[in-house]
Design a protein that fits this description.
This protein has about 270 residues and is an alpha+beta fold. The chain is built from five helices and 15 strands. The longest helix has 15 residues.
C-alpha cells in the first residue's frame, strides 16, 4: 500500500493494484482528526464514547482530504453479518441497516465502512464498472461475507469473478490474532479446508492463530477471482497502532478507522 499525507494532516493508505483504474479508495489512519485520547485523533464512530460533534468533524476532515462531499457517503450499521446493500445516488448519505457490505455502479458515490481489526475487502469489476466494499470480522469471514459481496455483484450487475480486482486492507494479522474454540469450530463448519488458516506459533498445546487475510483471499479465489488479482495489504493493525486503531492491540480503548471508495468516470464515458 501507499501512504499518503494530505495537506490538512489527514493520513490515508491507498492500494497499489488500483493505480490507473477508474476508482478511488482510501483507508484512513488515526491521524489528522480532532478527537482526544483514547480516540486520538481521526475516529469515525460514536460507538466507543466519542462525541457526535468530533466524529462529524473527523469525517469532514477526511472528506476534505480525499476530495468528496462529506454529506454523500453511504455507510452501514454493521452487524458482523453477510448482508449486502445495493445502493445508488438515491441512498447518498444514508446508513444501511443490517448490512456489512455495499455495492454500486453509481459513479462518484462514496461507499464507507469502519474497522478496528476486522478486514476491509474491496472488489472492483473493471468490465461492468462496479464497486463493492465489505466488512469481514471473524464471523463475517467464516460465514462468507466476501463471497456474498461478490455474489451480489454478479446478481445485480452481471459481474464475472475472473474480471474482479480484490483488495484486502489493514486488519489484525495472523501473528496477532489468537482465537478460541468457538472460532475454530465455526471455521471448520463453514470453510473448506479450514485447517490451512490456523497455525500454532506457541505450540499445539496453546490457542491457535487465525489468518483472516488468507481466509478471505481463498474464499474469493474459490469463487473464481484470479489469485494474481488479489492484493493483501499485509498491515497488522494490532502491531501498527502508530497508524491504526486496534481493538485487540488497544484492549478496546480506541476509535474506528474507515475505508471509503468510489467509482470515477471511465475514459470515453
Amino acid at each position: 500500500m501507499q501512504r499518503v499525507v494530505h495537506a490538512n494532516g489527514v493520513v490515508t493508505y491507498t492500494f497499489e493494484s488500483l493505480v490507473g483504474l477508474p476508482l478511488r479508495a482510501h483507508v484512513s489512519t488515526r491521524h489528522g482528526g480532532v478527537s482526544p485520547a483514547p480516540w486520538a485523533s481521526l475516529n469515525f464512530s460514536v460507538a466507543r464514547g466519542d462525541t457526535p460533534e468530533r466524529v462529524r468533524a473527523n469525517r469532514a476532515r477526511f472528506a476534505e482530504a480525499v476530495g468528496i462531499d462529506p454529506s454523500t457517503p453511504v455507510v452501514c450499521r454493521q452487524v458482523h453479518g453477510t448482508g449486502v446493500a445495493k445502493v445508488d445516488w438515491e441512498q447518498a448519505g444514508s446508513a444501511q441497516d443490517g448490512s456489512d457490505a455495499l455495492i454500486t455502479d453509481a459513479v462518484g458515490l462514496p461507499l464507507s465502512l469502519v474497522f478496528a481489526d476486522c478486514v476491509p475487502v474491496l472488489l472492483y469489476d473493471p468490465v461492468r464498472h462496479v464497486l463493492g466494499v465489505c466488512h469481514a470480522g471473524w464471523r463475517g469471514t467464516v460465514n462468507g461475507a466476501a463471497a456474498a459481496t461478490l455474489w451480489a455483484m454478479q446478481a445485480a450487475y452481471g459481474t464475472a469473478a475472473a474480471d474482479v480486482v480484490a483488495c484486502i486492507g489493514p486488519s489484525i494479522g495472523p501473528a496477532s490474532y489468537e482465537v478460541g474454540e468457538e472460532v475454530v469450530a465455526m471455521a471448520h463448519a463453514k470453510l473448506a479446508r479450514a485447517a490451512r488458516f490456523f497455525h500454532y506459533p506457541n505450540g499445539p498445546e496453546h490457542k491457535p492463530h487465525f489468518d483472516l487475510w488468507q481466509a478471505n483471499a481463498a474464499q474469493l479465489v474459490e469463487q473464481g477471482v484470479r489469485p494474481d488479482r488479489v492484493e493483501i495489504a499485509g498491515v497488522d493493525t494490532a502491531t501498527r497502532t502508530d497508524d491504526f486503531f486496534s481493538h485487540r492491540g488497544e484492549r478496546g480503548r480506541c476509535g474506528l478507522f474507515g475505508m471509503t471508495a468510489w467509482l470515477t468516470p471511465r475514459r470515453g464515458d
